[in-house]
Every structure is written in C-alpha cells, then in structure tokens.
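Collaboration report, partner site 2.

Our partner group contributed sequences for two proteins of shared interest, and the home lab folded both. The records are reproduced in the order in which they were received, starting with the first partner submission.
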Amino acid sequence: MEGSIGDIIIGWLEQAGLATQYAIWAKNLIIFFLIILLAIIVDKLTKQILLSVIGRFTRKTETQWDDMLLDRKVFHRISHLAPAVLIYYLIPIALESVPFWLALLQGATKIYIIVILLLSIDSLLSAINDIYNTYEISRTKPIKGYIQVVKIVMYSFGAIIIISILIGKSPFTLLAGLGALTAVIMLIFKDTILGLVGSVQLSANDMVNVGDWISMPDFKADGIVQEITLATVKVQNWDKTISTIPTYSMITRSFQNWRGMQESGGRRIMRSVKIDQNTIHFLTKEELEKFKRIQILGDFIEKKQQQLEAYNQKHNIDNTVLVNGRRQTNIGILRAYLMEYLKRHPKINEDMLILVRQLEPGETGLPLQIYCFSRDQAWADYEVVQADIFDHLLATLHEFGLKVFQNPTGHDLRSLKK
C-alpha cells in the first residue's frame, strides 16, 4: 500500500514534467507534509473530543477528584500523545529512502513522547496530592514530600532514557555506569536527601503539621505552617510575611510548636506587676472590716481571721506587738482577692492552673505574678482578656493600700524641687 501511494504520487509528478529523481524527493516532501497535517488534525480532534467529553462528565459528577485531574491538565497533556504516536509510525512512509533523517525524526519523536509522558505523570501525581489534601488526615500526614521524591526519581529515569536515545546506547548501560558516579550524585542531591530524611522524621514523629503555629527564632519564623514539602517548610508569619525553613533544619534545630496550647483549651497568661515594697503592711481591724465588704473576699477574710486568732491564742501571742504571731497583710489579701477574681472570670479556664504568686523581690519592687489560662486562644481576643485583667488589677491596687513601683520621672523630680 505504501509503495502504491508513493508510486501514484511519483506518476503524477512525472506527468507534470519532473524527472524521476526529483519526483522521488518531491514525493517524500509531500507525504511528510501530509503526515504533519494529519497529525495536526488528530491533535485538534483529540483535544476537542476528549477534553469536551471529559469536561461535560466532570461537571455532572459531584466528586472533586475528576475536577482536580482536569485542573491539573492531566487529560490535556495526555492528548498530545496521539499526534506524536501517529508521526512515529507514519514517518517511515515519507523518509524510507533517507535513513539518516528517518532515524533523527523518530528519535526526536521518541524524546517528545517521553517528555509528554513525564509531564502527564507529573500532573497526575500533583492531582493525587490535591485529592489527598481534601481529607482530614492530610493535616497530620502530608504526602507532598513523598510525591516530590517520586517525581525526582521519575525525571531522573526519564533523563537517562532520553540521553540513551541521543547517544544510541541502552539505558541499562548508562545505569551500570552510574555506580561510579554515586559520590557525585550524593553531593548533587545532598539537600534533597536531607529533605527526604527530615520530611519522613517530621511526619513519623508528628512534630509539625500544616496549620500548626510554630516559632523558630533562628529563621525569624513565628506563624502558621502553610506547606510542608520535601525541601522546605513554609510559614506565614503574623505580619503576613513568609518564612521558608529547610525541612532538615526542623529536626536539627529547636523550634516551638504551639499545637499543645491550641488543643489544651487555654492560652497561658503569665505577667507580673511590681509592687512598691514600702506600701506593704499589716492590716488593722478597720481595714479588715472594710475589706469584708468586698463580696468575693468576705467569707475568706472571716475564715482566715478565725484561723489566725485561734493560732495566736493557742500560742499565747502578745498582740500589742504587731510582729508577734500571725496577721493578715494587704498584699496577702490582694493575692486572695485576685485568686477569687480569676476563678470567677468568664474568660479564664478554671479547670487549668491558676496562680497568684510573689517572685523574688529586687531593686524594682516585689513582682506579683498572675499565672492562668485564657479560654480565648486567638491572639487579638487573648490580648484583650489579658489587658482587662491587668486594667482591673492596676486600678484595684490603691484600694488595698498598695502602689506600683516605677522609677522617678521628670515630672516627679520637678515636683520634688518645688
């Protein structure tokens, strides 16, 4: 059949006045361009029919995986195979008389087919990752790093096959020769190998997941993990900047993961107010009666006073000297008040630790620390809760005869001068 088509074309050309030698060359060119034209037509038809049918099908289904395959252009890339295969098998008809050009064009077509296959598989793997990310398990067990490893291996083998086509050698011959280049390959792919190790360890040990809030000062990262890949961990900081951290660094350097706080139901408040130690004193009976009128303190003061009086009577304490025995102080009453205040605060998690404690006094006063957990974990809400508590504390201090310590300011010095 091939010979008959060629003979017919040659006959036409010879009738047109061309010599037999030139008619053969013209025949080859005509058949070549006809094959190219047919390949273009097949390419257009394949895309139009395949993509339109698949597009209508995906719009009718409720599943998302087919939409993701379409978005990643898996079918679009596969459609390029049809014209390439057509050219590969039909090109000998046009170039049978010129083996050099036949081998060259068939080799180029092979390389084109391999590239299209690689790109199609790449799109398919990306679509698989997109489909996997729709499941909840993807937050704790991302597979993007593993897919990147598969892509690297795939492209490496593809490159070997393409090189074998270019040099006319078997791919297995090239693979056998790679043993001597192992050290070089290890050096070239060092970061990739380290990234793979880091990605596996992060996933296996559940050290960090997408959506976690992490802090890593070495890389100036403080925000939410957006993506975990083979080579990098992408973090969106609170100022909306993006920090990129090498995956392997996540297991070789320290970082803070706030996931435990997010899962615990509370966010820690730990802040101190420094009390002027000169304002701390024993309470008089009049002050005790005054503080009893504070609703959340009445019962506490009554019980505490009974305990202290029973102790002093038991040990025959001389009450004419204040330092004898046990007595209530304004700082102690303030601590009791703050404990009751925090326990009743609607924004404080009473099921978690609540402390009001004194830290070591120093030259800047006596630090009185509040240690508790806010129910609201969102940054803005948490700051509002913390500010409200300390607004109340600072405004309450003078009611207990206490003052906040602060260094003298210019205004204080001018008042002293006057």
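Second partner submission, folded after the first:
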Amino acid sequence: MIKDFPIATIYVSDQDRARDFYVNKLGFKSEEMPMPGGMRWVVVWPEGAATAFTLMLPSSAEEKVGVATGFVFSSDNLEADYQEMTAKGVKFTMPPTNQGWGMLSEFEDADGNRIGLSQTNSAPQV
C-alpha cells in the first residue's frame, strides 16, 4: 500500500547554485552525500515537511531543466511570503491571485523551474 511521497526530483543545471537558492532564498534545510562516479545527492526540504526534493543534474535530453514542475508549496500567509521572497530576489511569474478556493502564485528557481505557492481559504464557519 502506498502511504507517503518522501522525495521528488527537480532537474537543475548547477547543484551548488540550486542549493544556494533553496537554502538562502527559500529557507530550506539541506543535506548531501557523495554518489558513485563523482556525482552528489543534494536534497532540500522546507522545515517540517514530509517531502524533500533531490536537486539532480540531468543525465539525458528527456530530463529537462527550466520547466513547470507541477509542485505547489503551501503557505499560511501567501502575501507575506511573496513580499519576503521578492525582497530576496525570487522571481515570480504570477503574483498572488485569488482563485476562489484560495490564493495561488508561481515563482522560478535559479534554473527557471516554475513552482507554485498557495494559501487555501479557511473552512467555512457554521
């Protein structure tokens, strides 16, 4: 039975530059380990998250850098996170926008990979 989603891959052109972006601009935690053949396993994650992201160098043309990842991070205060991230130089391709169910924005990492950031509306009061 499937029970978790612990790791997703983001393809990057430079692991050090990507790690710097996720750690210093987004405030993620990071770990790395050497791999055979001189490669490195570089992992980043938001503190307390159940899912981490491995920052991998592409090994074939099918593994693309600079794409819409389909990943969406959640935020408790999207507007505040947008302001803080923008001040740190994060490029947003879509500012916080009301979607009815909540707010959604989209930013790019150091390689142009597009990632969503959302805040859902609180449950209706009864």
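Feedback sent to the partner group on the second submission included the following. The chain has one domain: 7-58+66-120. The first strand starts at residue 7 and ends at 11.
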